Amino acid sequence: MKVLTIEGATIRMDQETGFICITDMAKLKGDPSLNIANWMRNRATVEFIEAWELKHNPSFNPFEFEGIKSGAGSNTFYVSTKDLEQAGCTGVFVKRGRYGGTYCSPQWAIHFANWLSAAFYVETVDAYLQAQELLYGKDAQLKRFSRELAAETYPLAAGQAQQRLPRGAKLEMKLLSGKIVGDIINLAMWGMTSQEWKIKFPQRDARKNMRDYATAEELKVVSALQVLSQSLQEDQYTSEELLERLTDKVPELMTRFCRTEKQQAKLTAARADRGW
After folding, report:
1. Residues 6+ apart with CB under 8 A from 75
2. What range does the domain containing 157 cover?
3. How many domains is the chain built from?
4. Residues 260, 160 within the same domain
5. Angle CA(119)–CA(123)–CA(124) in degrees, nearest 5?
6. Is residue 90 part of a domain?
7. In which domain of life is the source organism classified (predicted)?
8. pTM of the entire structure?
9. Are residues 180 and 68 in the same domain?
């Protein structure tokens, strides 16, 4: 079982969801049932819950939540976990039984800690960050962020290529044009297309691609190339010109994102380990 250690006490985390047991947290500051109930009835908490659900729950219906929101702040207002679940909230659930409790998403739990006390909030945030570092490591967290950044900037390059297609172009053509631009960036960055990489380095998991094995610094360069690609396409660069310009840019970007000796050593080791 995953756990957090806050003020020397063990706080359980749900294995499947990563949700944190706020019952364990509440016990450190008095009556857990009273603490959780008072936190949930607080108007600021209700507004936070709505904001979290709107961002993280695609099925959330704010109109169904309106009944809860409209009562928040009154002296007689009370809301339970069951009420929240029935209103479509997904950031909290209750485990029954001897070892049960109320479990919330990490953001909810941190909000609860802040409500309990400022000092407890600081301890909770530090404990959560330490647990994430132990679980993923600093390097893995940085790579996850860089991978997400590369995924988010890819549509800039692919989308610009698709806009240059004739009106009414079929979906297959749009997908192909995006793939071509993606491979131009792969060629500039690693000297081979995705298909060439798959042939040279066969994968058991067909979903894996070159970027899954790239370093955080390489992924930052890819993101920058994707943004630059959009601009160059807007200036009507041909595919050959685009490849040449991006290839010339790679050394400059690698120097920018791989500045320290430690980063350079890790990059060299990663390339040697994977063989490309």
Report:
1. none
2. 137-274
3. 2
4. yes
5. 115
6. yes
7. Bacteria
8. 0.52
9. no
Q: Which residues are paired to 103 by β-bridges?
A: 21, 93
State which H helix or E strand residue 90 sits in. none
Mean pLDDT in the chain?
87
Last residue of a domain, one of 82, 116, 150: 116
**Measured between alpha carbons, how far is residue 212 from residues 146, 153, 215 in Å?**
11, 16, 9
Domain-located, residue 109: yes
Residue type, 112: F
Q: Are residues 171 and 76 in the same domain?
A: no
- Listed as own residue / partner, the contacts of 152-157 with beta carbons closer than 8 Å and 24 or more positions apart are 152/223, 153/223, 153/226, 153/227, 154/182, 154/226, 156/226, 156/227, 156/229, 156/230, 157/181, 157/182, 157/185, 157/225, 157/226, 157/227, 157/229, 157/230, 157/233
Do residue 158 and residue 109 come from a single domain?
Answer: no
How many C-alpha atoms does 193 have within 13 Å on its Cβ side? 8
- For residue 208, the one-letter residue type is K
Distance CA 181, CA 149 (A): 17
Query: Mind listing the pLDDT tens digit for each residue in 125-159?
Result: 988 888 877 666 667 767 777 887 788 788 878 77
Tokens of 183: 């491979």
